[in-house]
TrEMBL record:
InterPro entries: TFA2_Winged_2, TFIIE-bsu. GO terms for biological process: transcription initiation at RNA polymerase II promoter. The lineage of its organism: Eukaryota, Fungi, Dikarya, Ascomycota, Pezizomycotina. Residues 47-106 form the TFA2 Winged helix domain. Keywords: Initiation factor, Protein biosynthesis. One of its GO terms (cellular component) is transcription factor TFIIE complex. GO terms for molecular function: TFIIH-class transcription factor complex binding; translation initiation factor activity. It holds the Pfam family TFA2_Winged_2. Coiled coil: none annotated. It comes from Stemphylium lycopersici. This is Transcription initiation factor IIE, beta subunit.
């Protein structure tokens, strides 16, 4: 802590020392007692490609990692992730501007080539340019088009009769006899 601009006997120096050496979850500073040095603790302990692969291999779920969390301790993460994506080592979700946002593990052994016969058949199918033509062809073959709008018949609206009005909640029910108006019973 000699690099700080605080006098050695000052109380703030001791407070900082205790704060930086505290072992709580929110503390972003780790202290190495062997060589008396402090180090920044990143959100994830991943700083290169090998550590990222190791993390994905030990991970129990297929959850992805946010690039912003990786950037906290790995400054060249975007370039390295792009290189790993080219080698089919990771799957990347990008934002609209092409910036990587999330990364997942990828198994390159699952990248199988497509059967050329299937690809040829797939590309030989002609889809009409106008969706209306496709709908007419489907209807001519007595099939239902997925884009066909369902006609909803509105039920005739009958006016509902209003029910009789109820009086509000009566309070002081224990004093009904006392509060009753007996003025109409006079002679």
């Amino acid at each position: 802590m000699e690099y700080l601009n605080i006098p050695p006997a000052h109380i703030q120096r001791e407070q900082l020392r205790q704060l930086m050496r505290a072992d709580n979850q929110g503390n972003r500073i780790s202290w190495d007692s062997h060589n008396e040095k402090y180090k920044y603790k990143s959100k994830l302990d991943i700083h290169n490609r090998a550590q990222l692969k190791g993390h994905f291999q030990t991970q129990k779920s297929a959850m992805g990692l946010q690039i912003k969390d990786l950037k906290d301790g790995w400054s060249t993460v975007a370039d390295d992730i792009t290189k790993m994506e080219e080698k089919n080592e990771v799957l990347v979700r990008r934002a609209k501007d092409g910036v990587p946002k999330t990364v997942w593990a990828n198994d390159p052994s699952l990248m199988l080539p497509m059967d050329p016969v299937f690809a040829k058949t797939w590309h030989s199918v002609q889809v009409p340019d106008n969706p209306e033509e496709l709908r007419k062809v489907l209807l001519a073959n007595k099939m239902t088009a997925a884009t066909q709008a369902k006609v909803i018949v509105a039920a005739p609206s009958t006016k509902k009769k209003k029910g009789p009005r109820r009086g509000g909640k009566q309070t002081n029910t224990h004093m009904i006899g006392i509060l009753k108006d007996f003025s109409g019973m006079r002679k």
